[in-house]
Write a structure and sequence with these properties.
Blueprint lengths: L8 H11 L3 H13 L4 H20 L10 H4 L4 E6 L7 E5 L1 H4 L3 E4 L6 H15 L10 E6 L3 H7 L8 E4 H4 L13 H15 L4 H18 L4 H9 L8 H24 L7 H4 L4 E4 L5 H18 L10 E5 L2 H4 L2 H6 L6 H8 L5 E7 L7 H4 L5 E4 L5 H10 L4 H7 L6 E6 L6 E4 L10 H17 L19 H6 L8 H11 L8 H7 L4 H13 L5 E6 L8 E6 L1 H9 L13 H16 L4 E7 L2 E9 L2 E7 L4 H13 L4 E6 L2 H15 L2 H4 L3 E5 H6 L6
Parallel strand pairs: 3-8, 3-9, 4-6, 4-7, 5-6, 7-8, 16-17, 17-18
Antiparallel strand pairs: 1-2, 1-11, 9-10, 10-11, 12-13, 14-15, 15-16
Bound molecules: adenosine-5'-diphosphate and magnesium ion.
The site of magnesium ion (MG) has 3 residues, from α6.
Length: 698
């Protein structure tokens, strides 16, 4: 071939057109032919022309993203895409099972086909996991927020055994219970730290939740979301203090979570997650808010992390397919809240060793922290991005030069830039035509029913009897609601309630109680706190002042709920007699014990001729009444007259302060003269005396 052959431009163009079919061969031939040209000038001219021509021709393929050799990308188990060679013969780009644990990501704008590709990939993994014995050695968990994956999975025959779990409706999960073999306290610490990210707690608030969980753990072992809420709700803090503000924020969050996810978390009985980790599942999260999805997935991720053993040679066991994962894990929020270590990063880092792989899809790669992205080395599949931010991140992570970036910006639909563990240099791929039929209503119903049956068999057994031993049978729902939280009282705690209910112990000052009880003051305090914290409160503590110079004392009152429980337990006890408020009743009991301690019979609310006195003491022929003068003076004077009329010989007024004592004394002298004092018809005492001395005389 000589230059002359090419002088005819028309002929040259014909050659170029032919080159469309077999460009590479053509270019080689042309270049070879220039060697035979003697005229250097002409030769140069021709080369220049060829360069332009080659450029034009080959640009339609991918001069900037050379195809990797088949031997590098094709061995593997799961198809990702087909390599575009530009030379006609295309071959699949695959990922090997061992590399799948290194996680992967599919990036692209809405409608690019991410959900399609992820579902396709998940289905391949699920199908290929089937062993000869009919069991599967790898499970795929799909997280579906839009219902799309659910429909595709239900419509695919070969995925019949994939469970479709409607999360709020069908799933039960006690998130506070650690996976088997994991320390409960450690689990709670991790769980509550994660709350910072999911529930937006401040550190201080997070500590409050953690401490509440520890208290419940010590008190009763197993507890659930509602009990955490109840436990925090009964705590009393100074209004406006930091504690009370934290308390409010926790209560709001927990209430909200119980309202929407109540059926999931308001339970002691979980579905067996360890068994579910061996099955492919679509977690249906449609209709849940980002917060709730975030909490739920965070819980699952934590549970799996704690449960799965570390294997030194990573063996693929479980895949998390997360479409729109930036939405699912609310990665954007972490950035706003300045959280440096989102739990997603933790997952990306630690899951590989446990044989758990993350396969993620997202539209907004620019919200994902680079540390997370650099942990995704299994595979990258990038569709043409729709904006500059994503393009920049892609060009960084896929090591594209500026010409390649230009090319990527013009990529056609279904064309993707890929990178795998085996081939870290970006290459051009094309997603093949995938057929994912959406399920019919019939198919959907059959699958839901199947799931229900499996889930029923995976629910933990009813809690063992000791928790419900207060009742002969399982309480009805109504009982359970009104008596909620009582089941977990320990025997010691119930014994202490019974001890408090004994007549001799009613309204004793706490210090006296603790002397009588054989347990330590510290322990008794704890028991009292537990009774206060249980349900609506089984007891109340009151502070009683003894008036000026009188030491204040605390006393216990059993609430209606407390008596209700005692009755349920079949413990016979009389509620206190007396009248008025707790303070009045306390003094009635205290005063009554005073003469009794000296061997005189005394009675609270003693009746005589239609008139009851606060405390009456009668012996031989003497009839002494004690009136507690906490109210108005005139009322006391009325009492004085009517008590005498009713046949009492002597009225003792018990008052709080010396001032009141003097006032009352003067008033009586003024009204009835000194005579009543001289005849010993009336006497006055400070209330504190009844607490301090046991050996006075009447
Ligand atoms: N590989 C494919 N083969 C056939 N159809 C596809 C493929 N990828 C995407 N599609 C079509 O494009 C639509 C959008 O795909 P989808 O996966 O939902 O996009 P994305 O999740 O990125 O928003 C699908 O409903 C489907 O009809
Ligand atoms: Mg999608």
């Amino acid at each position: 071939m000589s230059y002359g052959d090419y002088r005819d431009k028309k002929h040259l163009w014909e050659m170029a057109a032919k080159a469309e079919v077999e460009k590479v061969g053509w270019v080689k031939r042309m270049i070879n032919s220039t060697r035979s040209l003697q005229d250097m000038k002409r030769r140069e001219k021709l080369l220049k022309f060829l360069t332009i021509k080659i450029h034009q021709n080959v640009k339609e393929d991918h001069p900037f993203l050379p195809a990797p050799p088949k031997s590098l990308v094709t061995p593997g188990s799961y198809d990702l895409a087909r390599v575009v060679t530009g030379r006609g013969a295309e071959y699949p780009a695959r990922i090997r099972k061992v590399d799948a644990t290194e996680h992967g990501i599919i990036v692209g704008p809405s409608g690019a086909g991410k959900t399609y590709s992820l579902t396709w990939l998940g289905q391949q993994i699920h199908r290929k996991a089937l062993r000869a014995d009919g069991k599967r050695n790898i499970a795929v968990w799909f997280f579906d927020t839009e219902g799309q994956i659910t429909a595709y999975m239900a419509g695919t025959k070969s995925c019949e055994d994939v469970l479709l779990i409607d999360v709020p409706r069908d799933f039960r999960f006690n998130r506070y219970k650690a996976p088997p073999g994991v320390d409960e306290k450690e689990h709670i610490t991790k769980l509550t730290s994660q709350e910072r990210e999911c529930k937006y707690y401040r550190d201080y608030t997070m500590n409050m939740v953690r401490n509440a969980c520890f208290e419940l753990l010590n008190r009763q072992g197993i507890f659930n979301e509602r009990q955490v809420l109840d436990h925090i709700a009964v705590k009393k803090f100074k209004p406006g203090s930091r504690d009370s503000m934290s308390q409010e924020s926790i209560l709001n969050r927990l209430r909200e979570s119980l309202e929407y996810m109540g059926s999931v978390y308001d339970t002691h009985r979980s579905h067996d997650l360890a068994a579910l980790a061996k099955r492919s599942v679509v977690w249906m999260l449609q209709g849940l808010s980002t917060d709730h999805i975030n909490t739920f997935i965070g819980d699952l991720i934590l549970w799996i992390k704690e449960y799965m053993p570390v294997c030194y040679v990573p063996t693929l066991k479980l895949i998390f397919i997360m479409d729109e994962f930036t939405h699912i894990c609310d990665i954007g929020r972490c950035k706003r809240a300045d959280i440096q270590e989102p739990y997603m990063l933790d997952a990306a880092r630690v899951y590989r060793k446990r044989g758990v792989s993350l396969m993620l899809g997202t539209q907004s790669i620019y919200t994902v922290p680079n540390v997370v992205l650099s942990n995704l080395s299994g595979f990258w599949i990038a569709h043409r991005p729709s904006e500059g931010y994503s393009m920049r991140i892609l060009s960084d992570h896929l090591a594209l030069n500026s010409e390649q970036v230009e090319y990527v910006a013009e990529m056609l639909k279904r064309y993707v830039v890929c990178r795998t563990k085996e081939c870290p240099r970006a290459f051009l791929g094309k997603i093949p035509e995938i057929d994912l039929p959406a399920a019919t209503d019939m198919e959907m119903a059959t699958r839901v029913e199947h799931t229900q049956r499996v889930l029923d068999s995976l629910l933990e057994p009813e809690p063992q009897s000791d928790q419900l031993s207060l009742f002969d049978q399982k309480p009805t729902d109504e009982q359970a609601e009104t008596l909620f939280g009582y089941y977990h009282l320990t025997k010691t705690c119930l014994d202490y309630l019974e001890f408090l209910a004994k007549e001799a112990h009613l309204f004793l000052p706490v210090t006296e109680l603790d002397k009588l009880d054989s347990i330590s003051n510290y322990k008794a305090d704890k028991l009292r706190q537990q009774l206060i914290d249980t349900g609506p409160g089984l007891i109340k503590i009151h502070r009683i002042t003894g008036g000026k110079m009188g030491r204040p004392s605390s006393t216990v009152e059993i609430t209606d709920a407390g008596y209700h429980l005692l009755a349920k337990l079949g413990i016979k006890c009389e509620p206190p007699t007396g009248h008025g408020d707790t303070e009045h009743k306390f003094w009635q009991y205290t005063i009554c014990r005073w003469p009794i301690a000296q061997g005189f019979p005394a009675k609270i609310e003693q009746w005589r001729n239609g008139k009851a006195v606060d405390v009456g003491v009668e012996w031989d022929e003497r009839k002494v009444a004690v009136e507690i003068a906490l109210g108005k003076l005139d009322k006391e004077l009325e009492n004085f007259v009517s008590d005498l009329e009713a046949g009492w010989d002597k009225i003792i007024f018990a008052v709080l302060t010396d001032e009141k004592l003097k006032k009352l004394k003067n008033k009586i002298i003024e009204k009835f003269g000194r005579k009543s004092l001289e005849e010993e018809k009336v006497a006055f005492m400070r209330l504190k005396t009844f607490l301090e001395t046991k050996d006075g005389h009447i």
